[in-house]
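User: Let's play a game. I give you a shape written as tokens, and you guess the letters that built it. Ready? Here's round one.
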């Protein structure tokens, strides 16, 4: 059961300088080794084959009957036997059984049933007999080879892999390589341009210089002006960083190479760096061009944090390659690297040095005018009903990014299709907004008692929201289950807010505690339904005490590191952290008492609002204020 969207705090994920993965093996194979082993192996195998081939070629295979006849004629000088197979030599050449020529050397096979007292006959005829055991004695070399074979095979595989990793010298290297990087959308019919970007004009203005340079590098070169080699776009997700990079390439009409930094981090060591090399080489060939590296924080985070072992990991190698390539620019190639991140504060300072990403541009969520402009862009191809008011929509969507607004328009269009309308009307827009802000409706049948409790819980949030001076007005209350919530109360500010006063924050805490307080006042027990409310309360209270200097006892210092700084960001004495906890606790309990007091005092209003909510399930702003009997204009701070 959530209250307003919490103030957007920059980083979304806590960053910890996690232990780097153990350094992978990257020793290079000495070059000639593999080839030598390979040749030796081939020679051995071949020579064996050749020998047996020629050996077989000299003698003629004859039937045992023929052998018997020759023996009877006394035409055999010597034989050599191995098991039941016999090789031998004739005294004088005999005609071959199939005709064509004579033979002296022969091979034959003695049938196991031959009951011919062969030995006696051989002795009689004075034939020299040599024999060999059936199990063949292998030569020393063959033995060696066989015992070494598995190892040799392993070595061979290793060599192939090593070659492949090294970025592919020779034939073996070509095995696992990808095609060289290709620019995306160069000649595509319609390219993204600044006309597709709105609401971030100051950023566009900074980038026009880059566009200008790409369009006309000679003019800059003539005057010896050097362009930035790298531009870093930083800002929350969905603010249009990728879009902007594309638009710069489109405006300048130059090839756009795009790679996500996480693509560089591949399983196979060393590939990342070689991909970077290729990417830059390709871009240089077609310069002027833009290389876009998305999510650069995945490879560009600070080095040397605890746990990174000597800096021998893939990420670092890739990062170094990017830096090396950028350092190699003379400044006149006309290749400009644009990188994007939503966590600029964790980037390695080496990236931000002059000559690298020295131009840093912050992309923020749009203000009201910006939102309206973005809505106009995204409704260009959407038939809008004349009654749809984009200005009004922009007003009620503070905090939303370009991506959120694009999504909102799309949801509205989908709804209009579902409703078989031929244009997108105000209803579609407001229902889509509801879905985007509150989550999708969940079909869930709740018992009446649960519905009642939820109605009181949400009414508690809403009523306290209405009663706090300076709080964001309540826009919508619902007890239709949505997403993971059983009910939702939505408050959004009248205008964009960029900073918050202490009374405002207290009001937020009181409002967030309103749900729990209402359950306490009405039923005398609390439920598990307030979990996310309490999380929000805790965040605000700890921020007030430990980050924003709103507690006398803690003082005017930052005691609680922000997410980006992580556990290593700041150090405070345990007593300070203790004080933060106690102060946060004090603030929250004061606010809770206040909430209970106000709800008890305005119990009639609470009952009226809950009753209306049970009846209607969803109340919009006007209906909610009317049901509670609170005048709508009480939102200015005294
Ligand atoms: P980011 O890279 O900052 O996370 P994207 O550039 O990927 O955000 O934005 C996603 C989509 O949101 C874009 O494709 C575009 O449709 C829309 N969008 C974001 N910002 C804007 C803007 N300023 N103007 C118009 N559309 C935008
Ligand atoms: Zn709640
Ligand atoms: Mg992006």
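Assistant: Ready! My guess for every position:
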């Amino acid at each position: 059961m959530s209250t307003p969207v919490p103030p957007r705090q920059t980083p979304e994920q806590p960053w910890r300088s996690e232990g780097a993965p153990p350094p992978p093996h990257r020793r290079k194979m000495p070059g000639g080794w593999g080839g030598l082993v390979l040749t030796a192996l081939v020679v051995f195998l071949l020579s064996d084959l050749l020998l047996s081939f020629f050996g077989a070629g000299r003698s003629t295979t004859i039937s045992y009957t023929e052998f018997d006849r020759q023996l009877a004629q006394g035409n055999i000088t010597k034989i050599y036997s191995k098991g039941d197979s016999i090789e031998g030599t004739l005294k004088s050449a005999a005609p071959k059984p199939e005709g064509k020529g004579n033979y002296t050397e022969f091979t034959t096979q003695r049938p196991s049933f031959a009951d011919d007292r062969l030995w006696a006959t051989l002795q009689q005829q004075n034939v020299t007999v040599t024999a060999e055991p059936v199990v063949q004695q292998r030569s020393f070399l063959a033995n060696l080879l066989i015992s070494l074979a598995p190892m040799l095979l392993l070595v061979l595989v290793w060599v192939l892999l090593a070659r492949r990793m090294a970025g592919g010298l020779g034939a073996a290297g070509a095995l696992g390589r990808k095609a060289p990087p290709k620019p995306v959308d160069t000649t595509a019919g319609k390219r993204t341009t600044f006309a597709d970007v709105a609401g971030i004009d100051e950023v566009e203005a900074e980038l026009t210089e880059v566009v200008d340079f790409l369009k006309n590098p000679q003019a800059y070169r003539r005057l010896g002006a050097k362009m930035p080699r790298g531009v870093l776009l930083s800002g929350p997700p969905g603010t249009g960083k990728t879009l902007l990079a594309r638009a710069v390439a489109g405006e300048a009409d130059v090839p756009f190479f795009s790679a996500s930094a996480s693509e560089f981090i591949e399983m196979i060591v060393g590939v990342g760096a070689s991909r970077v090399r290729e990417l830059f080489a390709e871009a240089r060939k077609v310069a002027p061009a833009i290389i876009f590296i998305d999510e650069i924080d995945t490879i560009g985070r600070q080095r040397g944090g605890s746990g990174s072992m000597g800096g021998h990991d893939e990420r670092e190698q890739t990062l170094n390659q990017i830096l090396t390539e950028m350092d190699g620019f003379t400044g006149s190639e006309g290749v400009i690297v644009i990188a994007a991140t939503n966590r600029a504060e964790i980037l390695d300072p080496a990236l931000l040095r002059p000559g690298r990403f020295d131009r840093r541009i912050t992309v923020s969520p749009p203000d009201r005018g910006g939102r309206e402009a973005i809505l106009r862009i995204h409704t260009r191809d959407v038939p809008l009903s004349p009654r749809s008011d984009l200005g009004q929509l922009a007003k009620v969507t503070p905090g939303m990014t370009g991506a959120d607004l694009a999504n909102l328009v799309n949801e509205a269009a989908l709804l209009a299709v579902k409703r078989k309308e031929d244009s997108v009307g105000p209803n579609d827009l407001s229902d889509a907004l509801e879905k985007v802000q509150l989550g999708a409706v969940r079909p869930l049948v709740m018992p009446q008692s649960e519905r009642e409790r939820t109605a009181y819980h949400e009414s508690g949030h809403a009523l306290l929201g209405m009663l706090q001076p300076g709080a964001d007005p309540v826009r919508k209350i619902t007890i239709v289950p949505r997403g993971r919530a059983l009910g939702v109360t939505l408050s959004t500010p009248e205008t964009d807010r960029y900073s918050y006063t202490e009374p405002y924050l207290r009001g937020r805490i009181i409002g967030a505690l309103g749900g729990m307080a209402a359950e306490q006042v009405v039923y005398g027990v609390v439920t598990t339904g307030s979990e996310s409310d309490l999380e929000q309360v805790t965040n605000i209270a700890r921020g007030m005490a430990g980050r924003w200097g709103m507690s006398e006892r803690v003082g005017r210092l930052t005691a609680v590191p922000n997410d980006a700084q992580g556990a290593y960001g700041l150090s405070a004495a345990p007593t300070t952290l203790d004080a933060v906890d106690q102060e946060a606790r004090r603030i929250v309990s004061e606010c809770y008492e206040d909430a209970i007091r106000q709800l008890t005092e305005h119990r009639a209003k609470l009952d009226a609002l809950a009753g209306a909510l049970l009846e209607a399930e969803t109340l919009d702003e006007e209906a909610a204020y009317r049901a509670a009997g609170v005048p709508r204009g009480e939102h200015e701070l005294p």
